[in-house]
Amino acid sequence: MDQQQLQYPKNIQTKGADSDGTTVYKTIDELWEKEIEQNKDKQDNKWYTLADDYWKTVEPTIEGMLGGLGYVSDKDVTTSNLFLEEFFQNKHGQTNQRPYTMKLNRGRAMDCGAGIGRVTEKLLVPLFDKVDLVEQNPTFLDQAKNIFKEFVLQREREREKERELVEKKVENYFAVGLQSHDFNKHAIKYDCIWIQWVIGHLHDKDFIEFLNNCADSLTDGGMIFIKDNVTAKKSFIMDKQDNSVTRSHDHLIFLFEQSNCQLVKSIVQPNFPKALLPVRLYALQPKPKQNVSSPTTSSTTSL
Ligand SMILES: C[S@@+](CC[C@H](N)C(=O)[O-])C[C@H]1O[C@@H](n2cnc3c(N)ncnc32)[C@H](O)[C@@H]1O
């Protein structure tokens, strides 16, 4: 996406703090001005290398993936599973945004920012025939491969079948940042693109472009699911430790509107510890072709 400024509406042009509370950005534009040093080659972009450097220091475990909150993993997966199940073809569900025909198929899913494959193993493999992982840290992908291989060696008989299944179903391991993933080169169509706890690592313009690439890579009836932290207030938080930004719900809705995707349903993850930021799940589908337009200054809507 070109570097022309996004025209943020007022409710998103708020001030924001970094995770130490030491720097305050007057606006979201100021965040990007301060934090993005855009070079020609996106791989050299400070925004992405700082995050990459951080993740290289993190141990390849579920605790590492979830910042020491491994205990939320089961609840996280249970809610995601219920949310996703609703969209499968022939299921009857309710969306709170607009009438929707359930057309999601069980063919192929992509796990974006997959880490060591926690979501792949626990959520996507049981639901889809094939799964691809996209993750910028090759050590995490190696660990995912090891975990999926080791599964069959373990003695726990009742889990063995499930684990063999993982090894059989996972096909591609793409060691690349989401902002650089070449969807056209691989020309794979996905029924489900799952993007969990990683979008804060993409700055706004790359996020919109990534969503557009995802939309172009969906099968008929395919959907994009995003699960991530949102801020409790209207402002944003810049995390200086892992170089990511946590956006407000309104901010995300605005970015969806700027993309070629439309929101179908959103819920808040229930039963998470109160001390944590709210976690939201979003289901998106491509906008009907005639509605697809370039980014504009539209106002945001809340669910
Ligand atoms: C909080 S972990 C979440 C992992 C996984 N989605 C889960 O829920 O278990 C964030 C992951 O995003 C990866 N990541 C960070 N920036 C990325 C980028 N630009 N492209 C792809 N992956 C990225 C990190 O290496 C890490 O594995």
UniProtKB/TrEMBL annotation:
One of its GO terms (molecular function) is N-terminal protein N-methyltransferase activity. The keyword Transferase applies. Gene3D superfamilies: Vaccinia Virus protein VP39. Transmembrane segments: none annotated. S-adenosyl-L-methionine binds at residues 113, 118, 178-179, 196. Keywords: Methyltransferase, S-adenosyl-L-methionine, Transferase. The keyword Methyltransferase applies. Pfam families: Methyltransf_PK. Its EC number is 2.1.1.244. One of its GO terms (biological process) is methylation. Belongs to the methyltransferase superfamily. NTM1 family. This is Alpha N-terminal protein methyltransferase 1. The lineage of its organism: Eukaryota, Amoebozoa, Evosea, Eumycetozoa, Dictyostelia.
